[in-house]
Amino acid sequence: MANLDFISLLHKSTTRDYVARVTEYPKAKAAEKAKSWGYDYWDGDRRWGYGGMKYDGRWLKVAQAMAEHYGIKPGDKILDIGCGKGFLMYDFTLAVPGVEVFGLDISEYAKEHSKEEIRDSITTGGANQLPWGDNAFDFVLSLNTLHNLPNYDLDSALREIERVGQDRKYLCVESYRNESEKANLLYWQLTCEAFCSPEEWEWWFESTGYSGDHSFIFFE
Q: What does DSSP assign to residue 132?
């Protein structure tokens, strides 16, 4: 298991006003809107979601970096857990023509508004019970998703990733290293349920038998 950073450049390219997130609109109501996982979260106001998620190809560099590092080749089966609108799935097909991509997301809205080219490869459901067999995928990834699960689902989701994946797995979750980053995470998040330090995430990985790689998003 290694700590590998594939997405910090994308994360740090976004400017965030942490205090405004809790003062401009009631935070509890914003979280309720976000957790509908519908229009408000994906394409509504920035105060309670992404503020409009459109495909712009920014994930292609991530797909290329992962493909190179993990030696992904045509014919490999890739599963993206928490795939959203499937932009990274689609970019994998550009980075490595001939791969088979599969995605899972809790949001029916996200699937309906995903890239048409990969829409039929997205399954709607929860990460705690994956509808695929053991060792079904050559590469399993999950970006910015697992921290949205309560503890009982986080436990089963990590075990499910281990079950359906072979030797190549990668996930990225939100975390904090100090009180300042913890406060920023609390201010900014709308859907997070698992607020864990890196050491606590490492405990989760060990206790569930997750053997893949990982990285953390910090709100500096």
A: S
Name residue, tokens 């609109």: 25
d(CA 25, CA 31): 10
Mean pLDDT of 99-121: 98
Q: What is the DSSP letter of 146?
A: G
Instruction: pLDDT band for 11, please (50, 70, 90 cuts).
Output: confident
Specify the pLDDT at position 26.
96
Question: What number of other Cβ atoms are within 10 A of residue 28's Cβ?
Answer: 8
Residue 148: what are its φ and ψ, rounded to 5°? -85, 0
What DSSP string describes 185-212?
Answer: HHHH-SS------HHHHHHHHHHHT--S
Query: Which of 1-15, 174-188, 198-212 is predicted with the least confidence, judged by mean pLDDT?
Result: 1-15
In order, the DSSP letters of 93-129 are HHHSTT-EEEEEES-HHHHHTS-GGGGGGEEES-TTS
- How far apart are the C-alpha atoms of 161 and 172, rounded to whole Å? 13
Residue 128: closest CA among 56, 58, 193: 193
Where do the domains of the chain lie, and which CATH numbers do they carry?
Answer: 8-23+59-218 (3.40.50.150)
Name beta bridge partners: 79.
102, 140
Write the CB contacts of 149 (distance below 8 Å, at least 6 apart in sequence).
127, 128, 157, 193, 194
